[in-house]
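Re: your question about Superoxide dismutase [Cu-Zn]

S., sorry for the slow reply, the queue was backed up all week. Below is exactly what I fed in.
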Amino acid sequence: MPGPEDMPGPDEGVYPSMMTASATLIGSEGNEIGTANFLDGPNGEVIRIELNPDSLSPGWHGLHLHAVGTCEDVGEFKESGGHHGKVEGAHGLLNPKGPEAGDLPNIWVAADGSAGYEAFTRLTALDSLLDEDGSAIIIHAQEDDHLTQPIGGAGARVACGVIQ
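Result:
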């Protein structure tokens, strides 16, 4: 599977007018565990994530875009705030009142703790993620059921990356 370094950027002439961003993902102990890359297109945004082996526990994990671009409170990652585009009672891709702009499909982590992920979303755009206080991408300890309030039962925040 091609890695983030293989994702075409605007300097390669493939997507000359499209905005790109990235985030280095850190785990709950402050170690670098992977990367997230963002490619903003005319109809939505592609997000690619690569996690190194032994990064997270195997299985499904909730994944959300959060409202503040900080991961400084390592282990908690609560300073990244609530979900990007939070609307009270609207969390979840399956919620009839939602979804929120920060809602994303879950990420599957393999038995060795690694992951490769690609998703497309029309719910947000990079210019809104790269606003004055920035945004973060957060991986949660459990899967998101895409309906339960406020975060789909996804549990603690176990990884964080500042989108830049």
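The chain has a mean pLDDT of 91. DSSP finds one helix and nine strands in the chain.

Happy to talk it through on Thursday.
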